Amino acid sequence: MAEAKMEEKFPGCGIKVKPHIESAMKRLRTIYAIVYDMLNQSGFGWNDETKMIIVDSDDVWNEYIKRHPNAKDYRNAQILLLDKLVLAFGKDRATGKGAVVEQLEEENNNDEVEIDLIESPSVNQSQ
């Protein structure tokens, strides 16, 4: 069904569930897992206006990165689709923690999930 929808919207694109859509979903799930874990740590928060993670201090950041090096690119990165990632993947990681994630789940509880892969979250690799 996903392949048919992509072909309908973008005739001749040739996008297939395997490997194209599965690969994109895996990447988005990884981004969500990294951000979710950070937001559930003391010293981290979320700025909904800038769509960026807030860190209390450089010390908090440096200690976290020592234990989670895969999160290094997310300090100054906009995660534009976090609310949609919560809708898509929130149930997979729900632990009862994380006010930001819970708030986004409540706000979007009845919305349809439509993730525009073209507008995926940009991670600033130079930061």
TrEMBL record:
Protein name: Uncharacterized protein
The species this protein was found in: Bauhinia variegata (Purple orchid tree)
